[in-house]
Amino acid sequence: MGLFTKKSNANFWISYSDLVAGLLFIFLAILLISHLSFSSQKKENEKVSEKLQYFLKLRERIAEELRINFIKEGVEVLINPKNGILIIKENLLFDRDRANLKPEGKELLKKIVPTYTKTLFGSQEFQEWVKNIVIEGHASKERAERYLKDMELSQERAFAVLSFVFGDEFGEFEYMEKFRDITTAQGRGFMASVEKLPDENVVDLRRRNRRVEIKYMMQSDRMLEDLHTIMEERKYERKIYDKNRF
Fold it and tell me: Which residue, 62, 120, 134, 178, is the most exposed by fewest CB within 10 angstroms?
């Protein structure tokens, strides 16, 4: 139980820090957009605006590239078009309440991972902005007494995927070392349940919640640093301009 608690705490802080960084970037982005909208010096702010729009659209561009490449390879996967999260249904990888990968699940991962890594790391632009990758196990919310069991199961499933991908049975693939250097695994239990669809029954909702996700996290800290640098350059240019005027 002690080991389980330590894992849970570690997973919480990984998720919490990523969430805080993401929210901070979104907040500052909104602040900057508001500033640019009301600024009378629009020409001076064009560079800032362009950089900001680039950052905001980058995640979606990666998601679209993943979708296109999986179609080209004939691999049917679910990709969230907004954040690029790759979703694998429980029954494609595991039997119910089990954390051992099924043979067909292993074959599916052998098709998914090489295309995923080639998309993210084959592009110099994408590679520069991907901070880390997380393999997440998720469970359905059914009974309160299953909380610990489902949390542990989701962790074991995430680690099962990680272990297989980097194990001898999987074999080497392009960008394997880079992928391994920035990838971690964690279980979320039912902490990140999907939203209920209109007219969806409880059984189908629970089935959709039982899944494994592979997600890439962006370098929000670097994005903020770049924006800060641009704004400081603008301030300096403005000072020089004002000084020369008089």
Answer: 178
